[in-house]
Amino acid sequence: MATKKTVKSVTKKRARAAKPRPSGRRAQNKLDIRARIVRAALDLFQTKGFDATTTKAIARKARIAEGTVFNYFKTKDDIALHFFEQEVDQAMATVRENPRLRNAPLEEKLFALVHSQLEYLARHERFIGAALIHALKPASPLGPFSHRSQELRHRYLGFVEELIEESSPKHERGPLSFFAPEVFWIYYLGVLLYWLNDSSEGKQNTLAFLDRSLNVGVSMFKRGWL
Amino acid sequence: MATKKTVKSVTKKRARAAKPRPSGRRAQNKLDIRARIVRAALDLFQTKGFDATTTKAIARKARIAEGTVFNYFKTKDDIALHFFEQEVDQAMATVRENPRLRNAPLEEKLFALVHSQLEYLARHERFIGAALIHALKPASPLGPFSHRSQELRHRYLGFVEELIEESSPKHERGPLSFFAPEVFWIYYLGVLLYWLNDSSEGKQNTLAFLDRSLNVGVSMFKRGWL
DNA sequence: GACAATTCGTGAGTGTGCTCATATATTTGG
DNA sequence: CCAAATATATGAGCACACTCACGAATTGTC
């Protein structure tokens, strides 16, 4: 085997030109494998659901060994959490890039933000619950997701803070307003849980609740109650 | 062995008089075993934490076979969920039985309710998170707890509805007030999640937030905004 | 009391997520 | 170009939560 080494690698170099791209070997291959895992997982989660999807199946579909999955994601939940991260990022981008919202009142921005998040989640409802649930317990002694979801929460809160700042600068606000993003975070979690359990057509109940509660909440905020 | 049957049961009747109580056999024994499981689980959860406690260890400590545990609780999480149920029941009882609260304003009752819940949870914080998290996703396609926690939620909402009714009868309230317990449910979940992540001394942050937000919320409600 | 019917404890067995020593592939240094 | 050093894919193996076919114990019936 050792004697064949050089020959082998040359052969492979040729043979592989078809798939793992000609250029930067290792890094390139890593990206490729990661993409394959994500793709395979998404596919299986959506067809079979989260629990019925085994890591072995993900590995097989991604054409790698089972252990390899765990070189890329610490746990199975971590794979699902990946989609949750995308959800937050995508929603923030949507709000930021919508020109119509540029000068809209705060409650509309927040509605758009949450609405966008829920829309994304709807496409993945079949399995996203599992990731969600884990993201909810950042500092809990159980579960290894503390760091990653803490980070996510931080990014999210920062963005909300921005939106509030745009609508009413810090110096015009009440003494407790620094608390507002925290309150919104709790509110958002509540909405998510409500949404998960909302069986009305197109999640109308959740949207109605969103609209009404945001209006009340923001006007409360603007009157300096908070 | 079959020939010894009668003899054996007589012997056992005597031998057992020490532990599994003299009277009603089966029902008695079931209660006994269930109690032993709960006791063993509580003990292990508190010393070792939830994850580090195996079902095998629980069974061993309760002096039963491993499979038996699952005749009493569907899953390991279910055992922890049991403590969560106790928490809700105990908190409702506390509020109901406190004479000082009899004619107190709504916000005080609600504060007492939630405060009592959090106090109970504090004693079990080491592991309660796991149960909590599962209780949060009642109708989610994942997880088998839908029915039990739906029931719990229903009982809880009924109680909150009672409290509200005492404070302001239905006919005096706004058209959307039937929604109020739902809102409180979301609020409560938010508080729980906040509490789980609150690392301030004695969870002061959570309590402060509770106090302030309940006052604002209830006065909103009383002004007919809801 | 004896037999049948029923309930329930038992523990070996199963499939799972995840780990770890090893083999193999890639990069680096000379 | 080779060899040492490094990175990483591999899959047998592990511990765990949970299942199930079985037999023993209890209850119901005459």
Task: Write a brief caption for the model.
The structure is a homodimer of 226-residue chains. With 226 residues, the first copy, chain A, is mainly alpha-helical.
Q: Keywords for this structure?
A:
homodimer, DNA-binding, disordered N terminus, 10 helices, 226 residues, mainly alpha
Could you characterize what this model shows?
Chain A has 226 residues and is an all-alpha fold. Chain A is 70% helix and 0% strand. The first copy, chain A, is built from 10 helices and no strands. In chain A, α5 packs across α7, α6 packs antiparallel against α10 and α8 crosses α9. In chain A, 31% of the residues are buried. The N terminus of chain A is likely disordered. Chains A and B meet through α7, α9 and α10 of A and α7, α9 and α10 of B.
